[in-house]
Structures are given as structure tokens and as C-alpha cells.
């Protein structure tokens, strides 16, 4: 069964392509490589031993998208293609509204035209804004977004919920990712940050390998046990398997799931764990809080465990080990 993966060469998309193939699906990747490199496609083929169908196209090119759908006839779509840098979204909001909202609407119009009945959407825990309580469940309030990026995820969810509400025979699953980290255990797939990484793990690995200076820990005066922010870090392969289960078990009514491990770790805990598991030292300094950071968020993941029988297989240590293998292997590509 063919499944169209928009942004399928990206960090989460590429790992999902592998898990789909492992489960008998045939991914069709469309990606403009703004956040990836073509060697990733080759590496998916090495990991799976299967030839990949892929198109180097911008999703906004609807004529091309129609051509691809007419040729490949996918039965479902997993929509990863989006911009995701919080800071950049503040500086260049229109880029985010165009790519994350306008292109989503164009895609929905096309799936409607071709009667595609299965849709999985990459959302984020950022939709909860600053939650009143942790862990957050799918029932928790959606608070105002604190970045245009966060707002595009809230709006994207709403557009899809409204569209699929009227479609009795088409199914929607929204996956709210917590903090995806790690890399494929083969060290052939992983994250490819552009420029200076704004996310924690890529900065740590780049600092450890000598590409960057010391890590700045953004704030140590939060109301958390060690004063640094707490997040729910999930291995990208565990996240990828959630997409496969979402497709396999998709039924009406439409569903929204948190995808996190259900446990929070502070920035300092992550740092110490990275040093311990990889037997190295990372230089760091404390800096001021980063604007837009919330002190603490982690998932209540009961719903996805119950309904999709999903559970995370990898520990934080596994994630940090795999991220480090990937960073070290990158010079080979
Ligand atoms: C953000 C988004 C999330 C998005 C993710 C990937 C929000 C609330 N979250 O996650 O939706 O999916 O980016 O783009 O919008 N940190 C440092 N030093 C660094 C980098 C990070 O101390 O150099 C700290 C941060 O302050 C934070 C933690 O590490 O406390 C995690 O940060 P990061 O990896 O950037 O992820 P989020 O901001 O949680």
C-alpha cells in the first residue's frame, strides 16, 4: 500500500519511511530538501534494502503534486512537510504561514479531489502553549501559542479537524510530538540542523565533536528541581512507529494523540546523561532564559498506549548514544 510522505526526507519523515517499509507499506516521498540532503534517501535504501520512490519537489507546487498523486495513487498521506524553528518563525512569520498553513490547505484540497481517505498530521506539544499542569493530556486546554510556529500547528489542527468532521469515510490522526531526539541505531539516519542548532541535542553533539563552542544552558532559575527546563524526550524511531500504528489502526472518529514517553528530564539531567553514556565531557555555561521557553512539559500518553498499543522502546540513554553515533558518522556522508 502506497503512502505519500510530504517532507519524507526529513528527520522524522525518513525514520517513518523505514518503519513503514518494515511493516509492508510503500512510502512515496515528496521533499524539497530545504531541511535534508539527498544522501538520506540512499541511506533509507541501505537500511531497508528497498528502492525508494521519491520526488524532489516543493509541496506548494500543486501541479506537480497532482501529477505525483495521479501516477502513484497513494491510499494515505502523512504530512511532515513544515518549517519548525521557533525563533525563525518569530523573525519570518509569513514563511511559516505560507508553508505550514497555505500549503496544508492546498494539500487538503488535493486529497479531497483525489478522495484520499487516510491522513496523519505532524503536530506538536507546542499547541498546549504554557500548560497549567503537567503531564498534559489530549484534553488539556489549548493555550495561546507563543510563537507563529506554535500558532501554525494550532491552526493546522483546526483546519484538519473541521475538514475531516464532514467526511464520514476519511480518517484523520493528529500526532502531537513532544521532543523528538536520537537517531537511527545504524547511524545512517538522523537530524541535519541548518546552521547553529537551536535544539538542545544537536547543539550538545556538535559541541562535543568540536563544531561548536560550549553549550549555553538557557536559564537555571526556573521553578524546577535543578532550575533548568523539563521536557519529554522521545526517540525518533519510537515516534516513527507511532505513525505506522496510526495508519494501521485508523478508524472514525478522528483521533488526536500525544506522542511522548511520559517522563520529563531537565536540561542538566540530559547533559549529565549524555556525558555518562558516551564517556565524555561537554563544556557548558549558564545563560539567561530563552524567550518563549516554558519551565516544564511532559506527556500523559495513556491514550496512545491504550488505543494504538504503542509504547516507547528506547530510553533517554539510548537516544543520547544514538545521537552521538550519528554525529560521529556524519563526516562519512
Ligand atoms: C521546540 C518546540 C517544539 C518543536 C521543537 C523542535 C516549543 C515549546 N517547542 O521544543 O514544538 O517540535 O522545538 O523544533 O515551541 N536548550 C538549552 N540550550 C540550547 C538549546 C536548548 O538550554 O542551546 C534548552 C531549552 O531552553 C529547552 C530545552 O533545552 O529548555 C529543549 O530545547 P529544544 O531542544 O530547543 O526544544 P523545545 O524548545 O522544547
Helices and strands in order:
Elements (H helix, E strand, L loop, with lengths): L1 E5 L4 H12 L3 E6 L7 H10 L4 E4 L5 H11 L3 E4 L6 H6 L1 H21 L4 E7 L23 H18 L5 E7 L1 E3 L18 H10 L5 E4 L11 E2 L1 E3 H13 L6 E5 L5 E2 H12 L5 E4 L14 H7 L7 H14 L4
Parallel strand pairs: 1-2, 1-4, 2-3, 4-5, 5-6, 6-11, 7-10, 8-13
Antiparallel strand pairs: 9-12
Helix pairs in contact: 1-2, 1-8, 5-6, 7-11, 9-11
Uridine-diphosphate-N-acetylglucosamine binds next to helix 7 and strand 8.
Kindly summarize this structure in a few lines.
The chain has helices at 11-22, 39-48, 62-72, 86-91, 93-113, 148-165, 200-209, 236-248, 267-278, 302-308, 316-329, and strands at residues 2-6, 26-31, 53-56, 76-79, 118-124, 171-177, 179-181, 215-218, 230-231, 233-235, 255-259, 265-266, 284-287.
Keywords:
333 residues; alpha/beta; seven-stranded parallel beta sheet; two-stranded parallel sheet; 17% strand; globular; binds uridine-diphosphate-N-acetylglucosamine
How would you describe the overall organization of this protein?
Helix 1 packs parallel to helix 2 and helix 1 crosses helix 8 (236-248). The protein is globular, with a radius of gyration of 19 Å. The chain is built from eleven helices and 13 strands. A seven-stranded parallel sheet has the order 3-2-1-4-5-6-11, sandwiched between helices. A two-stranded parallel ribbon has the order 7-10. It has a two-stranded parallel sheet with strand order 8-13. 47% of the residues are buried. The protein has 333 residues and is α/β, with parallel strands linked by helices. Helix 1 (11-22) links the parallel strand 1 and strand 2. Helices cover 40% and strands 17% of the residues. The two termini are 31 Å apart.
Amino acid at each position: 500500500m502506497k503512502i505519500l510522505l510530504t517532507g519524507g526526507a526529513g528527520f522524522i519523515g525518513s525514520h517513518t519511511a523505514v518503519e513503514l517499509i518494515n511493516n509492508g507499506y510503500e512510502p512515496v516521498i515528496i521533499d524539497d530538501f530545504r531541511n535534508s540532503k539527498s544522501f538520506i534517501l540512499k541511506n533509507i535504501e541501505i537500511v531497508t534494502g528497498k528502492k525508494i520512490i521519491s520526488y524532489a519537489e516543493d509541496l506548494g507546487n500543486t501541479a506537480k503534486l497532482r501529477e505525483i498523486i495521479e501516477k502513484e495513487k497513494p491510499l494515505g498521506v502523512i504530512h511532515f512537510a513544515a518549517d519548525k524553528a521557533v525563533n525563525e518563525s518569530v523573525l519570518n512569520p509569513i514563511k511559516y504561514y505560507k508553508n505550514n498553513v497555505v500549503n496544508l490547505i492546498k494539500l487538503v484540497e488535493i486529497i479531497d479531489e483525489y478522495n484520499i481517505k487516510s491522513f496523519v498530521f505532524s503536530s506538536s506539544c507546542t499547541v498546549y502553549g504554557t500548560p497549567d499542569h503537567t503531564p498534559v493530556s489530549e484534553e488539556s486546554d489549548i493555550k495561546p501559542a507563543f510563537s507563529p510556529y506554535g500558532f501554525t500547528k494550532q491552526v493546522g489542527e483546526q483546519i484538519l479537524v473541521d475538514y475531516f468532521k464532514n467526511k464520514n469515510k476519511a480518517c484523520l490522526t493528529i500526532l502531537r510530538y513532544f521532543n523528538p531526539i536520537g537517531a537511527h541505531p545504524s547511524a545512517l539516519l538522523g537530524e541535519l540542523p541548518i546552521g547553529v542548532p537551536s535544539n538542545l541535542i544537536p547543539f550538545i553533539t556538535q559541541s562535543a565533536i568540536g563544531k561548536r563552542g560550549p553549550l549555553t544552558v538557557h536559564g537555571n532559575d526556573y521553578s524546577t528541581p535543578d532550575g533548568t527546563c523539563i521536557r519529554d524526550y522521545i526517540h525518533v524511531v519510537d515516534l516513527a512507529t507511532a505513525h505506522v500504528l496510526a495508519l494501521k489502526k485508523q478508524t472514525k472518529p478522528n483521533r488526536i494523540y500525544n506522542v511522548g514517553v511520559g517522563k520529563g528530564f531537565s536540561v542538566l539531567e540530559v547533559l549529565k546523561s549524555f556525558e555518562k553514556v558516551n564517556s565524555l565531557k561537554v563544556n557548558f555555561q549558564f545563560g539567561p532564559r530563552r524567550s518563549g521557553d516554558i519551565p516544564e512539559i511532559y506527556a500523559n500518553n495513556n491514550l496512545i498506549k491504550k488505543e494504538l498499543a504503542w509504547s516507547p522502546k528506547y530510553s533517554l540513554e539510548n537516544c543520547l548514544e544514538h545521537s552521538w553515533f550519528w554525529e560521529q558518522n556524519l563526516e562519512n556522508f
